[in-house]
Structure formats: structure tokens, C-alpha cells
Amino acid sequence: MNSVASSHEARQQSVRSPSGAAHARRGFRGEILHHDFALRRNGYHLRIVPPHGPLRADVDRLIHRMYSWRGLTPYQGHDSPGQPIQTTLVACRGDRPFGTLTVGMDLGKGLLADTLYRTEIDSARSRGGQVCEVTRLAMDPEHSTPETLAAIFHLGFIIARLMHGMTDSYIEVHPRHTSYYRRTLGYRVAGPHLTCPRVGAPAVLMHLPLSHAETQALRYGGSTRTNSRNLYQLFLSPTEQRAVLNSLQGRNER
Length: 254
Description:
The chain is 31% helix and 23% strand. It has helices at 54-69, 114-125, 146-163, 178-185, 210-220, 238-252; strands spanning 13-15, 38-41, 45-48, 85-93, 96-105, 131-139, 168-173, 188-189, 194-196, 201-209.
């Protein structure tokens, strides 16, 4: 289950991107993304977190602090056999992480959300869907903004949808947060209120067709509109999205 708090900041970005990377959607290959990738924005940057090392430890501490502050049981452990392939993203100011989320993709061993909602997620699988989930979302309210939340969700979308061809995204949230995810990203409730064993709190499953996210990102990304109800307007522009995708794909082709 996930916890979010944020406010607003101006947008600006610079992507380190090698030339010659193909711009094409790929089927999921299960590759591990290079951890030297960085998406630089206005006063912060987004990175892919390696499985071990100081940055991973800092992210774990951030999650523990944010979840404990809200009275939740912090997540325990990382990737392990039987779990989905996971890519953890982090937003940092300097060396200080202040936001993180993890994208988990089903390689045939399921998602973490299957613990409570296997029947609901199987409905997408039965239609040929490639399913993924957003987990371990934590944003420090002292430093986060809607723009940083949009940026980290957009990077997760690029990895799941444009790199690996995922079709359906799921997220377990506290029931009181469902209206926020519905309003800002287009998620819809897909399962009943239950208790999430990983955080020891009420949860509800929400579902987002990634075709919808793709359309919204292309329509609103880089927009000058100021409708705070739509996080897609704070996404990268289509040109910036292509640069990020090329950078990620180019690093994996080395």
C-alpha cells in the first residue's frame, strides 16, 4: 500500500541520453536497468536505485520513516525469488532522497498484490494483459511537490509501458486515498476493502489501463495548463518522453 504527500514547484529538465537508441516498444525481457541513468529536473533528479549499496539503504530509511509516521508497518525486504521483477525509482535533492516508488512486473510468478487480489488481477491476465504494480510509494511532504510526484510516476510508466509492454497497472492504497488516484491519474477501484499484510492497514485495489495513461501523457504532457486535478499535465512532453526512453534503451543495449 502507498502513502503520498506533496505540494507544487516549477518544471524544468535535462536528460542524459546517448544517441542512436531505437524508439520502439519492446516486449518484457526482464533486463536489469542501468543505475547510472539520471533525469535531472528543477532542483532535483530521478534515479534508478541499485539493489544494494548506500542509496538503497537511504531509500529503505525513507520508506521506514514515512510509513512509520503514518502508523503503518514499513515494508520488509527487497526483491526475492517468487516476487515480480522490480525497479525502484528515487527522487533526490543532492544526495538526499525525498521520494520513491517501485514498479513490479509479473514474469509469471505474480505480483505482490496477488496476495489479496489474485482473482481481480487474473481477470486482466485472462484477456492477455501484461500486469504490473506500483508499490512502496513514499514522498516526504517537506520536500515533495505535485511535479515531483508526476515525474516519478511518469518514469515508472515509461519503464513499464514503453520499455516492457505492460498493459495494466495496479496499486493498493488506503481507502481514503482512492478519490485522489482516480482524479489525478485515472485509476479505478478494482477490488474490495481488505487489510494489507505488508503494512498492516486497510487497503483497496485500484486499476489503470496503461493505454489510458499513454494517451493522457501524449495529450497533456508538457502542457501549460494549471488544472491541479490532472497529474498528466505535469508529465514530460512527448519529446522529453522519447529522450528518456532512448536513454534507458540505449544504456541497456551497451
